[in-house]
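pasting Fibronectin type-II domain-containing protein for the record, 130 residues
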Amino acid sequence: CFFLLMIQIIPITNNNFLDISHVQFDNMTINGNSKGAPCVFPFFYNGAYYNNCACFGHPNRWCSTTDNYTRDGLWGECLNYAPCVFPFFYNGSYHDDCVSFDRPNPWCSTTDNYTRDGQWGECLNYGTLV
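structre below
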């Protein structure tokens, strides 16, 4: 299964990124057909109950957003959580905010040195993936 990476954003800045440090990401979803509804555990699917996100039937980890996926067919992709680390070092400079270069969407490092570690995640813009 492919794991999506979500990150925590610092308080609103000039780039309008939202402070979501209080949000619990464990059960949040994106994509799917549930408009961001949280995972419901356990959920029933094809004769079995699942207490975690599933790694089959979809290209990414997913969960049901109701207690019975077989009946309702509502789902979303599960999120993993790793916070932004500010400031972070990249391309010869320190950055105190999400950056928009070298990738199609704003991003940040999840360690203090992206150049060394290469760990990153996309930033959220007003609570949705950008």
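Residues 1-14, 16-24, 126-130 have pLDDT under 50 and may be disordered.
The two ends are 22 Å apart (CA to CA).
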